[in-house]
Amino acid sequence: MYLGIVRSALGWIQLDCSSGHDIHEIEALENPDTDIGLCGWLLVGMSLLLMVVTLPLSIWMCIKIVKEYERAIIFRLGRILRGGAKGPGLFFILPCTDSFINVDMRTITFDIPPQEVLTKDSVTVSVDGVVYYRVQNATLAVANITNADAATRLLAQTTLRNVLGTKNLAEILSDREEIAHSMQSTLDDATDDWGIKVERVEIKDVKLPLQLQRAMAAEAEASREARAKVIAAEGEMNASRALKEASLVIAESPSALQLRYLQTLNTIAAEKNSTIIFPLPLEMMQGFIKH
Fold this sequence. Notes:
The protein is α+β, with helices and mostly antiparallel strands and 291 residues long. The protein has helices at 2-10, 23-30, 37-53, 59-62, 138-143, 148-164, 169-174, 176-190, 210-252, 254-271, 286-290, and strands spanning 63-66, 70-76, 79-80, 89-92, 98-104, 108-118, 124-135, 196-207. Strands 3-2-5 form a three-stranded antiparallel β-sheet. Strands 6-7-8 form a three-stranded antiparallel β-sheet. A two-stranded antiparallel sheet has the order 1-4. Strand 6 and strand 7 form a beta hairpin. It is rod-shaped. The model is unreliable at 1-21 (pLDDT under 50). It is found in: Membrane. Belongs to the band 7/mec-2 family. This is Stomatin.
């Protein structure tokens, strides 16, 4: 009866358990053994009596407010209170025996400092990124790790080096989305026991050594020059084929050759009007053509 009154006064609520965590571990944290012993119950009873005696002044010490994006983990005599995290809204604590920790449930963003990574093909590159995560289970984030934010930052740096170490330079430059997805999966699995959900990972920049940049630029320039020479050679080959076909057509028709000859003279006279041309009749060349 007394225990039921205490629970009603403190406004117990149940915390929704997030998927992906071990059910037994979450239940053990959110529903701990409430047997705090005779001395513990005496302290709780004295705290409750003190709160009742000092009303209404004590109400300002017992009522706490949790914002919409926060959850409160209440400790009573060092134990997590049954029901897990409280909030948002009002909740009650007992003076002297209860303490609480606020946990921010909003998405947190942090930059991964530039990491010197040796790729699979023995190239040293500097890579940085950005990670988006949020606290999915406030109870696990408080009870299972000292500093979830610092641990996630250090783990992101290590994961970045480990993932990029299995890739060669071409894959790092072209498959950033795949690398980011692999990092997100690895981080999410590792932080699952901490109540952390990694929502997104992005690779921001890949910096190459100066000598390697020059070598890649020289290689790209040489490739462009080779491609230009191939294109020019193909153009000359197509032009020669067209000239051959035109010569065959002209050879079948002497009048066409005469017209082409006159057209060439007209073009030369228009462009080089100071040049004097002495055309030779084509009939004089027939003997040479037959031989």
